[in-house]
Every structure is written in C-alpha cells, then in structure tokens.
Please model this.
Amino acid sequence: QKEVEQNSGPLSVPEGAIASLNCTYSDRGSQSFFWYRQYSGKSPELIMFIYSNGDKEDGRFTAQLNKASQYVSLLIRDSQPSDSATYLCAVGGKLIFGQGTELSVKP
Amino acid sequence: GAVVSQHPSRVICKSGTSVKIECRSLDFQATTMFWYRQFPKQSLMLMATSNEGSKATYEQGVEKDKFLINHASLTLSTLTVTSAHPEDSSFYICSARDIQEYGYTFGSGTRLTVV
Model:
C-alpha cells in the first residue's frame, strides 16, 4: 500500500462547478497535511495546510481532514480555468506526496 | 513570505560527469531541507533530508554515494549528482521550511538532462 494515495485523474469539471479532490494516507500517526498545486514544468506551490480534524476554509478552497478515516480532501468552489493544474496531497513532516490528481476546468 | 532559490534551473551534461545543484533559503534559516526528484507525469519522490552540520538522511533505494548532499550552512544545501547517466535525467526540487511560517517552500526546480 502506498503511503499517500490520491484518486486517479484526470478530473474534468465545468467552470463554476465544485471540484473535489481526495487523498488517503497510511500512517495513522501523521499530524500535518498539505495540499499543493503544481503547474506543468513548475515546482509545487502551497494551497492549504490542515492539522486538526474538520474543515478549514480559505477563499474558494476548503480542506477537510478525518484522522479516524485517514482521509483528507480539498474542495474548490467556483472552479476557474486557471485552477487547471495537478493537485498534490502531502503528509507528514517529510512531506510524503501522493501521485497527484490532474484537474481540468473547462470554460 | 519565505523564498527558496534553486540554481541552475536547467542543465544539460554529458554522461559520466557530475552536476551540482544549489538550494538557498533567502530570508530565513533552514536547519532542514528536503530534496525531491520528479519524473514526467509522476509525483515528487523524496530522496533525502538534508540536515545542517550533519549527514543527510536518505530514503530507501536512493544511492547516497551517487547523490551527494551537503548542508554546510543554515541557508545552503547542495545536491551533487555524480557520474550522471541518462536515467538520472529528471526534475530535481528542494524545499525548506521557515519555522515562522506554515508549510514548506519549494525551490523552482532544476531540469537535469544527461546526454
């Protein structure tokens, strides 16, 4: 089992819709969780981090963490074409990354 | 916010030669930096954790004699790919964390092509 797994993409949503990205992790002791966005040929940029169970909102982005289920998700509301990128879930102090989900937002 | 500078951004080298990649934290001190490798269409794979003043900690399967890491100061870590071969061609990225901020900041990455 991979340490961090993300739902396979690509994920395609129409402009204005909600995009839902999911991630599960195997290390039950993990304390920190991050979502990064990566455009092709570029390095990742941090979108959000979450440490506590529940929801955390920042603008159009909401991260949800459920430690009992070892599950973290990212919701993007009012998706825009500029949100089209690969979204990476990362877990723990050493940032173990999932394989990434490619999101495409269609105008 | 925290800024991490990585140099060079792109390098082409001949098979058998060595290449050094630098990662600098510009406005903060980083006792720990991380080095990742990313192949096309794949995610970032952690190679090693670079610790200031001590030996790097390598992930399983990463050859420490091939990927030399030096973290001589609180703002600089270097990765040297020794005796590079075409299969080492990849996107190498470093990251560091400013303790006053959350999350990790990534360098801009180095595209290595070995011919």
Summary: Chain B touches chain A through 20 residues (CB under 8 Å).
